[in-house]
Amino acid sequence: MDYDREKELKAFDDSKAGVKGLIDAGVDKVPKIFIRPPDELAKELNRCQAGLRVPIINLSGIEKGNRREEVVHQVRAASEKWGFFQVVNHGIPQSVLDEMINGIRMFHEQDPEVKKAIYTRDRIG
């Protein structure tokens, strides 16, 4: 029997429960929609380079001299090449970061019906 990825993906989306919903439902193995074909994965693994490091943007001293321009350049370059980066010396207290993580955890631990109301795979923006 042929695998119908689109059908499985639609069923996953229609559940509006996300990955946490799969776990809550007792799924004990990774669904096929999340497994990349071996040939596709092999191509990517062959392209991977050892020693790659996520760009780190240091905001220390951003208010001084031309440091702001330098940081803007670093953010632009990291965004274009990587699509993400880590920010350090941003001045956000650890307590605020901890509260953010707790808020995310609280969201994911909500009743599935609450989360279904806002589930979407649409791109925002």
TrEMBL record:
This is Uncharacterized protein. It comes from the Eukaryota. It comes from Camellia lanceoleosa.
